[in-house]
Records
---
Amino acid sequence: MLDDFLVRAALAGIGLSIATGPLGSFVVWRRMAYFGDATAHAAILGVALALLMSLPIWLGTLVIAFAMALAVSWMSSRGQSPDTGLGVLSYSALSAGLVAISFAPGVRVDLSAFLFGDILAVTRSDLVLVWGGGVAIAALIVWRWSRLLLSTLSPDLAAASGINPTREGLVLTLSLAVVVAVSLKVVGALLISAMLIIPAAAARQVAMSPVVMALTAIVIGWIATLGGLWGSLWYDTPAGPSMIVAAALIYLALTIYSAIRRN
């Protein structure tokens, strides 16, 4: 069954959604969308370093994503607004990565595959990486759910309860770094944040509790994956962007439904 590239693509998207659903919910609640963009852009520098040092692509992107997460955590702990710093780090790392790739000896690189993903080219080893990372992140969020949620809703109350909000924020940023590393081949650096934010934002329109929102975001990610792949096959469009378009259509439909229900 895994010899069918469409089946592998569907499994990759489903495995990724297991992590992006709950993690994307925290990204929406904490307004971390800009950090997701910055980490994804910086992942291109990780690709360049991996090519130059003959390392696995996922390892290079993971190292750079971790570095970005730690830099943001350090800026936040010093009371600095991370927006400007993120902008500098994001575009500097993206540009440096694009330049560095040109110095990779004897390597012909299709940058569009890293920028927009190439889910139809997912291999069995990629599936192991995506599912391993997705399940690990989902398990981590389930394990620390109450701590993460309380730190998100009320940092002061979390601190009074003996929870370190800074540490929980670092857990989320490092988790986001892992998701970026394992999803680069699936949806690409420019679309990772969309896969995190759009299903979670759509789920927010109809969910009545944080748990329901996280679970609904997972289901929406699954539907967007399958719908996007179907649309890509039927209309001969790029698979990764088609998945994001499917998620956006679901968001639009649920937003209209929510508005009608309120009225």
---
Amino acid sequence: MTQIDQVDIAVIGAGLGGAAAAALLLNAGFSVHTFEQAPEFTRLGAGIHIGPNVMKIFRQIGLEKRLEEIGSHPDFWFSRDGLTGDYLSKIPLGDYAKKEYGASYITIHRGDLHAEQINALPQDTVHFDHRLTDIEERDSDVLLTFANGNKVAAKLVVGADGINSMIREKLLGVEKPRYSGWIGHRALVNMDKLRASGVDLEPCVKWWWEQSRHIMTYATKNDQSEHYYVTGVPVDSWDHEASFVDSSREEMEAIFGGSHPVVQALIDATETVTKWPFWNRDVMNLWSQGRLVMLGDACHPMRPHMAQGACMAIEDAAVLTRALSISGMEDYASAFKTYEATRHARATKVQTISNANTWLKEPEDPAWVYAYDPMTADLA
């Protein structure tokens, strides 16, 4: 594509939330084009959780069965003491999730999920190598200028462009996100080494808690051939310009030395590991203005401790689509108000609990998260 003079809806960002928004809006009959700054699709990231609340949305998009085939199906969420191994909580998933919450709970590689989402979109509507550089609000549209020189006039713009969203800057001004004081180490482990250690590889999510740190581990493929872990470790500052940097097995051993043998086995099976800062923003009361609207990390970024960050972005996309379907393009202002009024309390609650890092550490009923159906829930 060299230039598009006019589109109805422009989605800025083709990540998990943006791709979901594009699919849902297209399925609802809207004309949608998606613009992504990355030069091409790549299998980025590592493990991610997709709860029943969002598998219901993928059912609507037509991806539920495919994702069930690819992803791992944990039977339980276990929280355990990181030193003794004592169980702190045991939350049933697996068949129980299907029965009680209405859909599967899966863990999957983010890149595998993202690939399925991108492949489900008409390829002539997804435009890579489009980094947004300027936004001009006009009477009847928004003029978008991209670094490659293309200009696009869109009647509505959906900002799915992450924590450093340019749409957010347009609405609220420039403000860098705040470092949370925590980093996460991420690694895909060597399965031969992990099996040789004799550790229990039952299909479950294990969260190992220690006084000032934790490590979470789970499979990312249905055949259990890929295993992933992520940590949460307090660190005073993040002094790197890059979004992540390399770590090492030696650094992991220094942090988690003396932990439970399963934790030690995970670290021993580590070949490459990276570390990432966790960023925060305060709760935002403005998600839209004029013809611009935001979703996901652009308006409610959160630490990953509830495993619901991507899920909240996809829920946003579902509710925004429903609101626009009712109001139509012309009454977008009403749709945006309905969307924000419906989503704000739930997203803020998840954001707050995620940042507090208390989710499922002790026994509790997660139905308010997992049983929720964004496709049928009441709109405000």
---
Amino acid sequence: MTKPYTQADMDAVSDNPELTDAQLASARPFAEALPAMAAEMRRVRGRQKKPTKIPKTIRLSPEVVDYFEATGAGWQSRLDDVLKRYVTDHR
């Protein structure tokens, strides 16, 4: 197994010194400093592989929203799963 690098190892070979306060104060956002490169690097999302969902505005009872939000991230997908099961069971 390879021995992990220590801070002393990193300090001994570092060719990237810490920035000074003056350098940090004069820093500009990447897209402002190099706009052409930033534009080239911008990612564009391709077509979705799975069928897309339809954005809709619906009104839900507060207790329904509270319940699903309390389950954490992905609550909207879980709500969608419950509604799909309902549709399947009631066809």
---
Amino acid sequence: MPKLRVGVLFGGRSGEHEVSLLSAASVLQAINRKKYDVVPIGITKEGRWVTASDAERLLAGEPADQRQLRAGDPQATAPAAVLAKGEAVIVPPVPTAAKTGSLVPFETDRHPEHQALSVDVIFPVLHGTFGEDGTIQGLFELAGIAYVGSGVLGSATGMDKDVMKRLFASAKLPITKHVTFLRGEWEAGSRKIITRIEAALKYPVFVKPANLGSSVGISKAHDRKELGPAIELAANYDRKIVVEQGVGGKRGKARELEVAVLGNDAPKASVVGEVVPSKEFYDYEAKYLSEGSELIIPAKLTKQQAKQVQQMAIAAFRACDCSGLARVDFLMEPDTKTGKSGRIYLNEINTLPGFTAISMYPKLWAASGVPYTELIDRLIALALERRAEKDRTQYSR
């Protein structure tokens, strides 16, 4: 029986490019090579798609061959359009009737040296914009390729914190108070926006770009003096800004809880973990750069609290129409002085969480009895399952 051909896709144009490289290196090291033929596929920060030796150079932090052109450029779609001796640009695909998906050029040139890069499944380890927001998933759908993770809708809703919260609210899941506005509204009248925020929320507040991950561009504002710069920072990363009510307030810092979800139509939740950040909150630096953040697995909760968080995680997964995998994050108020447990709020869902061996998602599943290599196997199987289910759908009469 031939081995499955798995393309591991990493890099990308987002601000989380470096995080993606770390995740991909872990996947490439742990994936079972006896079961799969593995094809590393890199996307440079400039948007060029590279394979084989160039992809390996990208992982090592070295520049790719500068002869490669940006995917989709007309001049890139002739002789160097597809896999050629391991150094090719991949261009956007056309739908294919083949049983296995492939990324093929728009041209009909079929010389032997211009063979398409055929894979059975893509394992995208792309974080943030252009990889986690439904855009790359749409490309895979056009090509008819099975891929790990959520589809176009689940990925898009999981990326947009404003739309995500609307879906959570519709599912009657507890969320924090928040205000959403556009960058253009802020630039047209910052004073009006600040008045609106202060009328709806109490300090401290968290200011976030609506569409970004890994806490990039997120700030905690304790007063009006800090609010303006925080909004300016977030506006660098997205046209839509979300300002959220801080949980805990004067009672102290909120507890940050996380659950990993795995599955398609019948998702399962891992044990609950807790992050104790080294900084005031779990920002990009605390996650990836500084030392001292503590991951507690399992979190110190009662059985009832843990079950509640797991049920909410699965409900959030379904509310956003996710599949494959997701990490769901929660905020828990500190206990009251009388010992009453604080309320638990759903914070956000991450449809392509960090996937290094020490990232929370795989660590939560390892603590739940699913080791890293087996987790990769399950995700690939779920991708193929979802593709088979998709192929049952009829698109014409």
